[in-house]
Amino acid sequence: MKNTDTTKLLKQKISAFFLLVGSTALPGMALAHGNSYSVCPTDPIPDKQMCALGWPDTHSDPDFDQKYHFSISADGSTIIGKVDFNRDGTYRAFRWINSGSGMLDLGTLNKDNLGAADAVAVSADGSVIVGQAATDDLHVGRAFRWMNDGNGMLDLGSLKGADTGWSWASSVSADGSVIAGQAETSDHSSRAFRWMDDGNGMLDLGTLRASGSGWSNALGVSADGTTIIGQANTDDPGNRAFRWTEAKGMQDLGTLRTSKSGNSYAFGVSADGAVVVGQSDADGGVERAFRWMDDGNGMLDLGSLQGPNTGWSWAAGVSADGTVIAGHSSTDDGAGRAFRWTFEQGMYDLGTLRHDNTGGSNAHAISADGGVIIGRADTDDHNERAFRWSDDGKGMIDLGTLRTDNLGWSYASAVSADGSVITGLAEADSHPSSAGGAGPSFTSRAFIWRSGVMLDHLNTAASVFNTAQALAASSAFYSQLAEWQIADELAIEGPGISPRVPVLSTQGTGLVPQGRMALRFGGSLRDTSGVSTTAGADISVAVAMGGGYTLGGFLDLSRETNSRSPVSLRGSYLTAGTWLRYRENIDRTGLTWRIAASAGTGRFDVTRRDILPGTERGEGRTRMRNAAMSAELGYGFALGNGVAVPFARLTGTRTTRSGYNESSALAFPLSFDSYRETALVLTLGTDMRFAVSDRSSLEVGLGVSHDLRRSIGDISGASRINGLEDFSISGPSLVNRTRGYATMGYVHGLEGGAAIRADLSVAQSPWSKKPKLGLRLGYEMRF
Fold first, then answer.
1. What single-letter DSSP state applies at residue 302?
2. 96, 350, 651, 690: which could join 630 in a potential S-S bond, CB 3.0 to 4.6 Å?
């Protein structure tokens, strides 16, 4: 299919969806067509709504180009919609929450969980989801309510009775207690319904016919659930827009014709329910945008952009207070144009994106104060692209696309309350394999726009999740680093000495002179698979205290050299530690114990990398701190020409990362709250040392560590990304609660009490199946 044909088909699907499916709006989010910001409440409850954002493609496979519409809860915690999970053409309703658990298939109303389902609307806190799902009769779908209570879907039934008939839930109130939609009746018609969680089931809202017969359809419900709008049959030929309240029942909003005959459609309602906008038949055989107010004056004809007061128009959305309306109208040149209407100025042509201002445009939504209108307009390259029009003198601007060359099409579907953030759908570069050698290939992705920057919406949301997980992994790395550092020890005795041979020390004399002090300078590389490589430099000291006691300490300075995660940390981390060792015998046999403590700190420039397509690079600054303590008890025994010391060690660590904000120069900066991880780890192991020659020794360590307790907090923060205004993402999953390690070191003595050493280590990570590797080289001196 040609690109132009694909674009037309996509626009038809999107327009049909927004015209036929209604749902409530997120505070600060204006919706295209079927709803507008007008459904959003004003103070004192500005946060109890949700928003439909279009038809994004979020499948992880770039070649899988299936679209679905989705909605976001007001608190940003939940995204819902439908997706072809199995790629068999059967769409299923899903729920995605930003805790890291990913998409949840909500199932169906079928006892065998077969068939299709579609999630259409969600309550403010994400706890209630409504839509339609297949029943035991796979050819019949019914409205459902899904709650996060472990009970799954609730069949809302129909107006037909006897567990038969179809129904469809189109919208839900902010608290999830009121649901509106359409259902089959016993006379095989279909009616608008209101469902409340009061045990009475569906309420048939009736029709506008005196007999109550015919059909009706509910397209939206107000935030508090008291007002429902839609369309219904009348006694006259035609269908009329209606407004329903419990106090007044179903009100016929009439038409713009002098005779009051014809059809009308309700597309949006103001925050308090007093203003309804839509389209109506008018005199002269045309259809016009209307504004209806609950003041007894009925409909007001908004006119058109075609003179003298001829042509058609329709209203797509209305500001929160009902004073500003956006829509689409015919013009004198035969093209349809987006308009902005106020009572004082009338209808204003918003123009197009062409340099000569020819062609067409269409308004899809309006901000809360009416100052920003978004939609799509013709461009010079014969495409249609998303636009943002503002009343600050800047007029209409092209939002671009997600393609590398910024060409192709895009479609804006929703705008924030202040008009600064826009979401929609845009053409994007496809996976290279999609081209099949036949030239460039493109797909479509949901976008989010702010401050002149268009980003891939779902990739940007994924970037938040990946960044949060990577930050937690970085904290986890420094937690395990503390375990390694606090366990390291510099021996007073030099290499090549058999533990069975007496030596000169604080406890006696021997063949090889020994000093009372040892000093080591070292350099290390530590590789955390899939995360980063860190280089370090350290200095250690040990002093014989007499009576079998040795006191030691270390300083370690490390720095990340190669990041392979979504986050890189640029900065130095300084750790200082001290330890006290007791050995019953100089040859390491007999009782031994050790206590140690360390503390580390470092300031880092944090970079959120733009790994995923259509995302932005973010930078901030944070501080990492760590504290650790350990206690060890062991008993050594001779083994050949060496010694083995089995031991048990208990280590406690606490790692904290300070909160930080990314640069405000970004279009969508993130802020992260502080984070803390604590662990109590039991290690059972054996340290072995063997004399290889008079001047060299081989040291081997084997053991397992087990988490007695590990507290991993959620990574929380805030952003300007729709659906993630406030987020709390679970920390990394614990993969290896019990994990093994192995170390090997070779020490070779030089003249004058000096020695060189090399150490290799491999250890399982608590958070990854991949091992951690370490290499250290050192130069030792003994005095």
1. -
2. 651
